[in-house]
Every structure is written in C-alpha cells, then in structure tokens.
Amino acid sequence: MINLLIMGKPGAGKGTQAARLLDYYKLTHISTGDIYREEMAKDSPIGILAKKYIGQGELVPDNVTNDIVRNVLNQKDYPNGFMLDGYPRTKTQAIALDKMLEDLNIHLTAVINVDVEDKVLLVRMAGRRVCSNCGATYHIDFHPSAKEGICDVCGSKLIQREDDLEESVLNRLRIYNEKTKPLLDYYKKKGLLLIVNGEDPTATVFQNIVNKLGE
Ligand code: ADP
Ligand code: AMP
Question: Candidates 139, 152, 169: which one to mutate for ligand 1, based on the most atoms within 8 Å of Cβ?
Fold first, then answer.
C-alpha cells in the first residue's frame, strides 16, 4: 500500500503528476480542489460556501475541509493506497490528518513536494485550461488539447478557472507562503519529504518521483 501526499505551490503541477502517479500505482485520488469544484458545479451548500473563498484565492475554512477529508478517508476504498492532492494546506489540517490516519491505523509513505519558482507559476496558471466536465488539465502552450478548447478525454468544453486570474493567483501564492510552506518542515522532521524539481518537463518530473519513491 502506498499512501502519498503531493504538495507544491498553486500551479506547480500537483494535479498533472497526481494523474500519472494514480495510473502508475493504481492509487485512489483524493483532491480537495476537485471535490470543491464538483460541489460548486452542483450548487450544493458546501459548493455555495466554498465559492466565496475559492474565487478570491482564499482557503476554505479548516473545519469544513477536514470534515470532507475525514468522510472520504472513512468511506472511500483505496485497495492500493491513496494520493492526497491539495490537502493538507495548513498546520491545523496536517494535525487533523495525523489524527485521521492514526484512527484508521494508516501510515503515510511519502510527501512529494513539486518545487517551482514563482515566475514559472504565473505563466503556467495564465495558460491553464481545465475540462468543465471531467477536470482534466491542459496548458495552451505546454500541454495543448488535440482540438483547441475541447477535452481530449471526454470531448467537453475547456474553461479557465476563475481562481487562475492574476489577482487571485497572487493571493494564492501569498497564502501558500504563509500557511502551506511551513508544512514542508513539518514533514521533513517526520522523515517523509521528497523534493523534485517541478520545472523539468512533465515526464521527467514523473520519472524522478518514481525513482525517489523506489529508493
Ligand atoms: P497544480 O495542481 O499544482 O495547481 P497543475 O497540475 O494544474 O498544477 O499544473 C498547472 C499548469 O501547468 C497546467 O496548465 C499544466 O498543464 C501545466 N504543467 C504542469 N506540469 C508542467 C510541467 N512540468 N511543465 C510545463 N507545464 C506544466
Ligand atoms: P486546488 O485545485 O488544489 O488548487 O484548489 C483550488 C481551491 O480550493 C484553493 O485555492 C482553495 O480555495 C480551495 N481548497 C482546496 N484544497 C483546500 C484545502 N486543503 N484547504 C482549504 N481550501 C482548499
């Protein structure tokens, strides 16, 4: 069983690498960002609440996010392990996750940090397009879809995320530095942190992660 956390600044390539790693190790994906986007599309009470924060580039409150992850971990099947993507993002969430895993008697295998400079991120997020239906991720220059504006996987329309507009991106980076970055030290002290250079091409980043996990 392989249980991974994938961390990194917004736009570092977490979702892109998660998609490849899930396929390779047959892991169950738990992405809090995807869960919130699904809830927003449904206009559910959680979606309506999350929208207020996400559009501004703010984090959804810890208690809401912790409850979601706790439910998913308790209910979802992960026969080969899981990949948590976009969670935890604060120290409070990391402590809550430790407790959830302890209660389930599950251990983390590794925490992968995809490391990218800020100026690269701004270009990536300005060009990011996501499928309005299945959530697959593209980039207008680095990973274009075969047919412009149309998802290769399901044929639905590609859209730009509201929180990828520049003002929101800068706020997300500020929040990352303040709230999420300290978690790298938290996991380093636990001996779980693996760092990869996220500025390499996607396939190289993936291979480096697999190599490090194999060590
Ligand atoms: P995150 O999940 O960390 O926010 P994504 O995986 O959505 O980031 O990637 C952000 C954008 O950068 C997407 O448009 C994606 O296609 C692109 N991207 C991801 N990894 C790379 C890479 N190694 N090189 C170039 N572009 C990348
Ligand atoms: P992501 O797709 O991971 O970039 O997440 C998109 C947005 O969803 C974030 O900018 C936050 O507003 C919200 N979100 C996702 N995960 C979390 C989390 N762990 N804690 C709080 N907010 C989150």
Answer: 139
